[in-house]
Amino acid sequence: MSKQLTFDTWNDEKIKVLNNQFRDYMDVLKWAYRTYGDDIVYASSFGAEGIVLIDIISKVKKDARIIFLDTSLHFKETYELIEKVKNRYPAIKIEFIKPEITLEEQAKWYGPELWKDNPNLCCYLRKVAPMEKALKNYSAWISGLRREQSLSRSKTEYVNKDHKFKKIKICPLIHWKWEDILMYLKLNDLPYNPLHDQGYPSIGCFPCTNPVEHGEDFRAGRWSFHQMSECGLHEG
């Protein structure tokens, strides 16, 4: 493995040079797994970008590790898709990461619909805190962020200093457009969440995800009842 880049050894100038050297997404992933080996994990929500990345990653590291933040509030279509992915990529290691508290405990302590009353707290309890715990075992993680998804993601680089979790965050698909994602799925005959065909470009927990209208922001359907577009995993 190459010498690891870590949060503590980050150097702005060196990373700028590194990011400019990458030719494409495959170049980024080859560097990532060459550098980190088993010390890197892909955190996937199994959206369209996630399926594309899993397919590409499987070509670079057949037994790559994936974590899925299982909030217990995902659409049934998401859970069904994960089973299809397991069958298609048997060597890939998928770990379900669950919150410390159950939905029943959350309802008892915070009310039956915390996602409506305080979505930031709900996301913290069911996604951010579990993610923080899961990433303690790794130096770097991979994300499917794309620049066109939202204004807060428009400056994302291939290799990023993740202040939220004090890790290195690698985003191979930053230059991909939604049309590129759909074309890759089609050309490679990959399984994907059928909700994408029903107006859901971004799919999270079912209480907080709605379809979007044509021309709306890709993430307009997430937490549409609040002025919120990120769950806290990604800082703008």
Uncertain segments: none
- What integer value in Å does the Rg equal? 17 Å
CATH class: Alpha Beta
What's the tally of helices? Answer: 8
Overview of this protein structure:
With 236 residues, the protein is of the alpha/beta class. The chain has one domain (12-208): HUPs (Rossmann fold), CATH 3.40.50.620. It has eight helices and six strands. The chain has helices at residues 12-21, 25-36, 48-60, 76-88, 103-110, 114-117, 119-134, 178-187; strands spanning 40-43, 65-69, 93-97, 140-142, 159-162, 167-170. Strands 3-2-1-4-6-5 form a six-stranded mixed β-sheet, with helices on both faces. A hairpin with a 4-residue loop joins strand 5 (159-162) and strand 6 (167-170). Helix 3 (48-60) packs across helix 8. The longest helix has 16 residues, at 119-134. The radius of gyration is 17 Å and the shape is globular. The model has no long low-confidence stretch (mean pLDDT 90).
Feature tags:
globular, 236 residues, 6-stranded mixed sheet
Describe the protein's topology.
Layout: H1 12-21, H2 25-36, E1 40-43, H3 48-60, E2 65-69, H4 76-88, E3 93-97, H5 103-110, H6 114-117, H7 119-134, E4 140-142, E5 159-162, E6 167-170, H8 178-187
Parallel strand pairs: 1-2, 1-4, 2-3, 4-6
Antiparallel strand pairs: 5-6
Give a summary of the structure in a few sentences.
The protein is α/β, with parallel strands linked by helices.
